[in-house]
Amino acid sequence: MANVLKGKEVVAAMKEKMIADVEALGAKGVTPTLGIIRIGERPDDISYEKGATKRCAEVGVAVKQYLLPETATQDELLKVIDEVNNDKNVHGVLLFRPLPKGMDDATVRRALAPEKDIDGITDLSLAGVFTGTELGFAPCTAQACIEIIDHFGIDVKGKNAVVIGRSLVIGKPVAQMLLAKNATVTTVHTKSTDMAGICSKADIIIASAGKAGVVGPEFAAPGQTIIDVGINWDEEKGKIVGDVNFDAVEPIVENITPVPGGVGSVTTLVLVKHVVEAAKRTLK
Questions:
Q1: Domain range enclosing 69
Q2: What is residue 218's DSSP assignment?
Q3: Are residues 87 and 159 in the same domain?
Q4: What angle do CA 260, 22, 149 make, to 5 degrees?
Q5: Number of folded domains in the chain?
Q6: Over the stretch 59-68, which tens digit does the pLDDT of each residue have?
Q7: CA 128 to each of CA 4, 115, 122, 134: distance values in angstroms, whole numbers, following the listed order
Q8: In the 8-state DSSP scheme, what is residue 215?
Q9: How far, in Å, are 35, 55, 65 from residue 272 at the CA level?
Q10: Are 33 and 275 in contact (CB under 8 A)?
Q11: Does 104 share its domain with 145?
């Protein structure tokens, strides 16, 4: 049986350190503050916002909301972004996307100051991931994968890591982050041939395929660590499942994250961690 890498253990350790960091910042007169920009009343946005707000409260991070109606124009949104960019008391910004129809996503993303982009949506934030500089922050889900690897002491140096997926949200940034930790990284995707064969030779697999159960036992091998990023609704089972067929793969590998209770449970706290880090950077 594999070691199940539960997100709650990572979260507990992260919170302990973040509370200490927030207290240290408070002693210097700085209250880390998250600015949330939301347009309209999408239920999934509101649900995520509640989760983020709760996480902030748990470690002492303040929250400031900027709520716009569904009918808001792009110019009105850009005005709010400019306001947040220039507010020294707001250290990080969560901008909910997708944006309403008629708004240009690239224009809006470029308007956000990268030093306040705590979810890695701006081009400069992603450039920072690839250059190893503090231009912004990595996408939270990609960072959550690394937080899990680090917490459980999984050594990636010199190891063969395979990333399934090439999105800018997870695949490409997490591949670069693994390279920065001296792993040997291969990226596979829908056009790759013999994906299972490539994965079966890996020491570490980051599964972000976006398809339920696509990673089966033919992908797995003894000694592997599998980080399952997938969040999919399985109609037949009536529950959330990952990209990995957990029941078939877990008996084979050494370490595996569950879904739910794995990467997803860490991601929201990474967002808050980035707010704290952004506040710390202002003191440098």
A1: 28-113
A2: G
A3: no
A4: 35
A5: 2
A6: 999 999 999 9
A7: 32, 10, 10, 6
A8: B
A9: 11, 7, 15
A10: yes
A11: no
